[in-house]
Design brief:
InterPro entries: Glyco_trans_20, HAD-like_sf, HAD-SF_hydro_IIB, HAD_sf, Trehalose_PPase. Its EC number is 2.4.1.15. The chain has 814 residues and is of the alpha/beta class. The chain is built from 25 helices and 31 strands. The strands form six sheets. It has a nine-stranded mixed β-sheet, with helices on both faces. The longest helix has 31 residues, at 783-813.
């Protein structure tokens, strides 16, 4: 077994024959029943459970282990026996939550705080939603901890893959990652993820985001949901994402957290088997006979405020009002599934539904005709399948829904198998809300805004009068997609991506950092380590010539500092280093020569490479020089108006004018808009400057245009070459920086010192600031660490100087 933070002997990870998939969800895929007479428990598989159906995507020999709660309360004295039964008979591990904790966790935080928020409902008033309650949040965390304890009891962290389902367990990844740094962990969110404007109102927003980021792969139904999540990570945690060979990845402390976008599918076999039951066939005939001569529009929804049932009824009312010829010829059968939650909102929605249906039936109905048929009871699956198969049109009008598989089920049942007249082509008509997760995948459906009841009425009319040929083409397109993207395909695709996301787990070193729900894992190259004073001083003392290159912003001065001039401590450290004749010390910065020379004037022997090395000065007594041929200023006249137009269009952005470059900054702009504008500006400038001797680069919150060949790497190379030409080749090179431009310096410096033409082999210490992937071999945590290291070197220089003076004095006495 591999201990977290320690690399195993081999870099190759071989799959274990006992590799399992551990599926963790709020509830187990089981049905529980207790005999009222004997008191004995009996359990059976819930064939409609997604956790059970996803097995279809894997070979039969794949082992699955399920972790979750039962849908019934088990007394503490029975829990051990029930646990053993479930583990041996169903490969299931039950999480028994105390009644009060279950109520606060599920009914409280999940259903009355997270679920409404994720569906864009804010508790603006106490009567319209529950305000955030810290006790409920603590219950949520406690429940997630219990789930993690149960997973830890059964997991083999080296081999098993853990797949967590839905918003009930969003901080579970933190507990698991804290215990096993290299755990293979995936998460799929089955609800919508709200926009950042909504999500940021949640007081525990950072804890939940960091919980999800402790996964290796996070799945969403649609790109919109993923985009909202990425936007929240950018705005609240300052994380950027990028696409790597078609896969979206977030860099999170050296780990790449991948994003998966794929809507879940239906279980084709389950639907078809129910449809082929004799009871389903009889029900289809009954429905067809009951609504003979009429067009049947079907709606199947849970009774809650987001399914839009009342809006659907208003749309039907508008249909009968506008298209009077459809009166008596169209019937909406609305099956209302029992509400999953209770509360004032649900009661209001139910009351409005009945009042509206009654009004429509009274106005447009007759003795033998009811335009609205409400079925408000627990409808068996065969009966729903029969209605799907018999309906001419399916209307899904939810105002917000994570996925909603009703349209998929309708299409599969309309295909019908042996239950529909085999000689007739299969047809279907779909009218779906644009606010549900399945909408993007149903390109042949008529998409509507559910709030616009007249538009929905018009869409239903269009669907009903659509030609048979068009309905057939749309149906074939939908059926092909749904049948090839079923639940098995979804599960297999997710697991393949999870395996790919975890393949580098054992090629890096891991450290756990942070406390509580702020815990995360730092994952870096095995050769990447912290640079300590104790490690570098012996080499420093031994070297007769040293070259020291230091970045300015983010290395000597914090990026967040309001005042950018150096502190007294920085000046003192630099002066101590420069006073050692064995040292050649350079500040290599993107800043202009005027500000750097003014700020660093107390350090007379300090070299400065300004504007990324375009200007170089060896000390304060020397003149500024440049080794770059003049490119003229014509390109600046082309760049400035383009940058200015983007600055005027992007609030918070600015332009920095340098001698050698023009820089557009967007650090103070809206993160999403600024990033979008930066990409557009980059493309715009590249096309404008295609034939000019300049390069356009995008950095951290900047877009910069500068002459070709100007970089910190070339500046470092110039200094080292000149030292060699003077007969003072460096025996030690120290290079410290914190951002992308410093990576050029690390790369350029390393290629220079390994150049056989220079005949030098110095000890190289390339060091980045912050624990992050880098071309440098070493890291320091922050500016304070940098100053501590430099002070140690300065003190070493002083002690060497004192020792030298003492030896000279002793020799003169002799």
């Amino acid at each position: 077994m591999t201990v977290p933070g320690i690399i195993s002997g081999s870099s190759e990870v071989t799959s274990s024959p006992r590799e399992r998939k551990i599926i963790v969800a709020n509830t187990l895929p089981l049905q529980s029943k207790r005999d009222s007479e004997t008191g004995k428990w009996s359990f059976s598989w819930d064939e409609d459970s997604l956790q059970l159906q996803l097995k279809d995507g894997f070979p039969p020999e794949t082992e699955f282990l399920y972790v979750g709660s039962l849908n019934a309360h088990v007394e503490p004295n029975e829990q051990e026996a029930v646990s053993q039964t479930l583990l041996t008979g169903f490969n299931s591990v039950a999480t028994f939550l105390p009644k009060d904790l279950q109520e606060m966790y599920y009914r409280g935080f999940c259903k009355h705080q997270l679920w409404p928020l994720f569906h864009y409902m804010l508790p603006m008033f106490p009567d319209h939603g529950d305000r955030f309650d810290r006790k409920l949040w603590q219950a949520y965390v406690s429940a997630n901890k219990i789930f993690s304890d149960r997973v830890m009891e059964v997991i083999n962290p080296e081999d098993d893959y853990v797949w967590i389902q839905d918003y009930h367990l969003m901080v579970l990844p933190t507990f698991l990652r804290k215990r096993f740094n290299r755990i293979k962990l995936g998460f799929f969110l089955h609800s919508p993820f709200p926009s950042s404007e909504i999500y940021r109102t949640l007081p525990v927003r950072d804890e939940i985001l960091r919980g999800l980021l402790n996964c290796d792969l996070i799945g969403f139904h649609t790109f919109d949901y993923a985009r909202h999540f990425l936007s929240c990570c950018s705005r609240m945690l300052g994380l950027d994402y990028q696409s790597k060979r078609g896969h979206i990845g977030l860099d999170y402390f050296g780990r790449t957290v991948f994003i998966k976008i794929l809507p879940v599918g239906v279980h084709m076999g389950r639907l078809e088997s129910v449809l082929n039951l004799p009871s389903a066939a009889a029900k289809i005939k009954e429905i067809q006979e009951e609504f003979k001569g009429k067009k049947l529009v079907l709606g199947i929804d849970d009774m809650d405020i987001f399914k839009g049932i009342s809006l659907k009824l208003l749309a039907m009312e508008s249909l009968f009002e506008t298209y009077w010829h459809l009166r008596g010829k169209v019937v909406l059968v609305q099956i209302v599934n029992p509400a999953r939650t209770s509360g004032k909102d649900v009661e209001e929605a139910k009351r409005e539904t009945y009042v509206t249906a009654k009004r429509i039936n009274e106005r447009y109905g007759s003795v033998d005709y009811k335009p609205i048929v409400l079925i408000d009871r627990l409808v068996p699956r065969y009966e729903k399948s029969a209605y799907y198969a018999a309906a001419d049109c399916c209307l899904v009008n939810a105002v917000r829904d994570g996925m909603n598989l009703v349209p998929y089920k309708y299409i599969v049942c309309r295909q019908g198998g042996s239950l529909v007249n085999d000689s007739s082509p299969r047809t279907s008509s779909l009218v779906v809300s644009e606010f549900i997760g399945c909408s993007p995948s149903l390109s042949g459906a008529i998409r509507v805004n559910p709030w616009d009841v007249d538009d929905v009425a018009q869409a239903v009319n269009s669907a009903l009068k659509m030609s048979e040929a068009e309905k057939q083409l749309r149906h074939e397109k939908h059926y092909h997609y749904i049948s090839t993207h079923d639940v098995g395909y979804w599960a297999k695709s997710f697991m393949q991506d999870l395996e790919r996301a975890c393949k580098d787990h054992y090629s890096k070193r891991c450290w756990g950092i942070g406390f509580g729900l702020g815990f995360r894992v730092l994952s870096l190259s095995p050769s990447f380590r912290k640079l300590s004073v104790e490690h570098i001083v012996p080499v420093y003392r031994k070297a007769q010539r040293r070259a020291i290159f230091l970045d300015y912003d983010g290395t000597l001065v914090p990026e967040s500092s309001i005042t950018q001039d150096p502190s007294a401590e920085v000046l003192s450290v630099l002066k101590a280093l420069c006073e050692d004749n064995k040292n050649t010390v350079f500040i290599v910065s993107g800043r202009g020569p005027e500000s750097l020379s003014e700020w660093l004037s107390p350090c007379e022997n300090l070299g400065i490479a300004a504007e990324h090395g375009y200007f170089i000065r060896w000390n304060s007594k020397k003149e500024w020089e440049t080794c770059y041929a003049s490119t003229g200023t014509e390109w600046k006249a082309m760049v400035e108006p383009v940058m200015r137009s983007y600055m005027e269009a992007t609030d918070g952005s600015s332009i920095e004018f340098k001698e050698s470059a023009l820089v557009w900054h967007h650090q103070d702009a809206d993160p999403d808009f600024g990033s979008c504008q930066a990409k557009e500006l980059l493309d715009h400038l590249e096309s404008v400057l295609a034939n000019e001797p300049v390069v356009v680069k995008r950095g951290q919150h900047i877009v910069e245009v500068k002459p070709q060949g100007v970089s910190k790497g070339l500046a470092a190379e110039k200094v080292i070459r000149e030292m060699v030409e003077r007969g003072e080749p460096p025996e030690m090179v120290i290079c410290i920086g914190d951002d992308r431009s410093d990576e050029d310096m690390f790369e350029g410096m390393l290629s220079t010192v390994t150049n056989p033409e220079l005949l030098i082999q110095p000890e190289v210490f390339a060091c980045t600031v912050g624990r992050k992937p880098s071309k440098a071999k070493y890291f320091l945590d922050d500016v304070a660490d940098v100053l501590k290291l430099l002070k140690g070197l300065g003190d070493s220089s002083s002690s060497l100087k004192t020792t030298s003076h003492t030896e000279v004095a002793f020799e003169s006495i002799i």
